[in-house]
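Quick check before the chapter quiz. The format below is the same one you will see on the exam, so make sure you can read both the input and the output lines.
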Amino acid sequence: MRKPQSFQSNDRAASVITGQILLFTLVITGVLSVTAVGIPVLEEQQAEIQVDQAEDALIEVNDAFANAAGTGQNTTETVGVPASTVQIGGNETTVNISDGTRTHRFTTAPIRVATAGRTLAYEAGVMGTIPDTPGESSLIYRSPAESRLGTTSPTHQIQFLAINHTAQARTITNPRAGEIELQIQPQAQTTVSEFDGADGAQITVETKNPRIWVRYLDNHAAFGSVSQSGDTVTATLDSNATLRVRASTTIVKLI
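Here is the expected output.
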């Protein structure tokens, strides 16, 4: 039996409405799916941007220290940083080079920038990441300035930058970025010592960030075996190498 015209119209209208509902449901489901997948990706990208910004900030700080040490002039440096916690000092790092007869020792205040779940540290010119996972090695972004003389029995002259200051911390709450100001005051004295690997010289670093030193020393041509015991890192100078150490002290203050 054929349906009346009015019933056929109602059926077609119902079909159209049902189709529209299904289409709308599919669109919403697709949007939600894309959003669910996209948010973690965007968050990861933002985190990487913040880590890159922290790296750039510490490189800028390192360059400012080196310039101040070279000119001997006091300076105030404004550095852009991501949303983070910036800390100077808190746990001093001690660097000791000795051959059993002569000793060169200096202390330095570490600078740390914690952002997006990652921490970057700067100590005496060594700058790298602080791994969260036990056993994971550090990624080194910067090493102390160095010149190398000779090839068979090379002399490695390393310019460490010792930072002297009491503990300070600053939290940048702006989700995008902020700024810190550093007052940099280089000291007049620069100590120089020379060690011969044939005399059994070694470097010992006591630090709360041992893995950046393990990675730095392990990849340095002047040093042989590197070992870590707790917060102490030790490396032996290669028997064919000579190490000339320069340590410039700089007073730094967050203002």
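If your answer matched, good. The two ends are 91 Å apart (CA to CA).
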